TrEMBL record:
<keyword id="KW-0032">Aminotransferase</keyword>
<dbReference type="Pfam" id="PF00155">
    <property type="entry name" value="Aminotran_1_2"/>
</dbReference>
<dbReference type="GO" id="GO:0030170">
    <property type="term" value="F:pyridoxal phosphate binding"/>
</dbReference>
<keyword id="KW-0663">Pyridoxal phosphate</keyword>
<dbReference type="InterPro" id="IPR015421">
    <property type="entry name" value="PyrdxlP-dep_Trfase_major"/>
</dbReference>
<dbReference type="InterPro" id="IPR004838">
    <property type="entry name" value="NHTrfase_class1_PyrdxlP-BS"/>
</dbReference>
<dbReference type="InterPro" id="IPR015422">
    <property type="entry name" value="PyrdxlP-dep_Trfase_small"/>
</dbReference>
<dbReference type="GO" id="GO:0006520">
    <property type="term" value="P:amino acid metabolic process"/>
</dbReference>
<comment type="similarity">
    <text>Belongs to the class-I pyridoxal-phosphate-dependent aminotransferase family.</text>
</comment>
<comment type="subunit">
    <text>Homodimer.</text>
</comment>
<dbReference type="InterPro" id="IPR015424">
    <property type="entry name" value="PyrdxlP-dep_Trfase"/>
</dbReference>
<keyword id="KW-0808">Transferase</keyword>
<dbReference type="InterPro" id="IPR050596">
    <property type="entry name" value="AspAT/PAT-like"/>
</dbReference>
<dbReference type="InterPro" id="IPR004839">
    <property type="entry name" value="Aminotransferase_I/II_large"/>
</dbReference>
<dbReference type="GO" id="GO:0004069">
    <property type="term" value="F:L-aspartate:2-oxoglutarate aminotransferase activity"/>
</dbReference>
<feature type="domain" description="Aminotransferase class I/classII large">
    <location>
        <begin position="32"/>
        <end position="392"/>
    </location>
</feature>
<protein>
    <recommendedName>
        <fullName>Aminotransferase</fullName>
        <ecNumber>2.6.1.-</ecNumber>
    </recommendedName>
</protein>
Length: 400
């Protein structure tokens, strides 16, 4: 009999973390590896936010807090939801966790029973299906396509819903594709959800501020207010505020659900870092002036990467509306052989060979549930992106 839990056998380690670790290992061995696998901005945390953390330390705000966040941060979340989306929440409807991942996980642990289904559009963030499995549920994957710019249609959502469906997980702008749903596209999905009152909506809005070319972000409960009572709106400060290591995420939703999530968190991690919470208060309440210039840099980087990848025969790279990822197809490269003699049968083969033979780390599409593709994070310097894309071009040109 195995000592380890059977539940653990249902899940796999994060492929994005694994690829980042492999790149770091090769770099430590002296290889000039360029990492395009991590979803982490290369910008520093804004100074006002760092100053707020220092002030919190100086004031002795280093003790335990309430399990799911200090009142000041919950109030800041409420103000943000009203300011940005016109949604009214009270602090009792807000949960603060150790990163966005924990808030999602807490909600699934608090609600899923064996046999419950969760609809997840693919490509998806790698952790969604595995978190569902850990919580005892069943992921139902609804595949999109490059032809629809990786966006789920109303018909696809309708087809995926069954009497066992408990949640629909929605992410826009998307990790890994950067695809953003317009208000009309989102309205079509909410109309389907209105016909299925047993289905709750878990919306991951982590990339809301990273929106380009006039794309206007909106969230499901904002588009369809009638979904308010069965929507958990999840977000955090990691991406737009360059605070990945601070580990603060939050969610707003119906009070009974938030209370259940609090119970899970109180018996697992308890409160997020107190100093990080005070930094997040400043992030949400303080100046937002840095967002626009940061986005200008992201647009420049996006356009550089999309342009250079689309110059490659066999690769097709759509232009995303947001986040800091592109998700090119390598359908035209399947079956080809690398200079080292390895046949590219899958996108995992491609990513592995690209790392081993060209010193560029990307994440293969199968990790996100849709192949043959790979994900590039362009949240790094222009120089590194140009060099990496040149290496990808040379690697692909040498395929036979």
């Amino acid at each position: 009999m195995s000592f380890l839990s059977e539940t653990l056998s249902r899940v796999k380690p994060s492929p994005t973390i694994a690829m980042t670790a492999k790149a770091a290992e090769l770099r430590a061995a002296g290889r000039d590896v360029i990492g395009l696998s991590a979803g982490e901005p290369d910008f520093d945390t804004p100074q006002n936010i760092k100053d707020a953390a220092v002030a919190a330390i100086a004031a002795g705000k280093t003790k335990y807090t309430a399990p799911d966040g200090i009142p000041e941060l919950k109030q800041a979340v409420c103000a943000k939801m009203k300011r940005d989306h016109g949604l009214d929440y009270t602090p009792a409807q807000v949960s603060v966790g150790t990163g966005g991942k924990q808030t999602l996980y807490n909600a699934l642990m608090a609600t899923l029973n064996e046999g419950d289904e969760v609809v997840i559009p693919a490509p998806y963030w790698v952790s969604y299906p595995d978190m569902v499995l850990l919580a005892g549920g069943t992921p139902v994957i609804a595949e999109t396509s490059i032809q629809s710019n990786f966006k789920l249609t109303a018909g696809q959502l309708e087809a995926a819903i069954t009497p066992k469906t408990k949640w629909f997980i929605f992410n826009s702008p998307s990790n890994p594709t950067g695809a953003g749903y317009s208000r009309d596209e989102l309205k079509a999905l909410t109309e389907v959800l209105m016909r299925h009152p047993h289905v709750w909506v878990m919306t991951d809005d982590m990339y809301e501020h990273l929106a380009y070319d006039g794309f206007e972000f909106c969230t499901p409960a904002q588009v369809e207010p009638a979904l308010y009572d069965r929507t958990l709106t999840c977000n955090g400060v990691s991406k737009a505020y360059a605070m990945t290591g601070w580990r603060i995420g939050y969610a707003a939703g119906p009070e009974p659900l938030i209370a259940a999530m609090r119970k899970v968190q109180s018996q697992s991690t308890s409160n997020p870092c107190s100093v990080s919470q005070w930094a997040a208060v400043e992030a949400l309440n303080g100046t937002q002036e840095f967002l626009a210039p940061n986005n200008e840099m992201f647009v420049r980087r996006r356009d550089l990467v999309v342009s250079m990848l689309n110059e490659i025969d066999g690769i097709s790279c759509p232009v995303p509306e947001g986040a800091f990822y592109v998700y090119p197809s390598i359908a035209g490269l399947i079956g080809k052989t690398t200079p080292a003699g390895k046949v590219i049968g899958t996108d995992e083969d491609f990513a592995t060979a690209l790392l081993e033979e060209a010193d560029v780390a990307v994440v293969f599409g199968a990790a996100f549930g849709l192949s043959p593709n790979f994900r590039v994070s362009y949240a790094t310097s222009d120089a590194a992106l140009e060099t990496a894309c040149s290496r990808i071009q040379a690697f692909c040109a040498a395929l036979t």
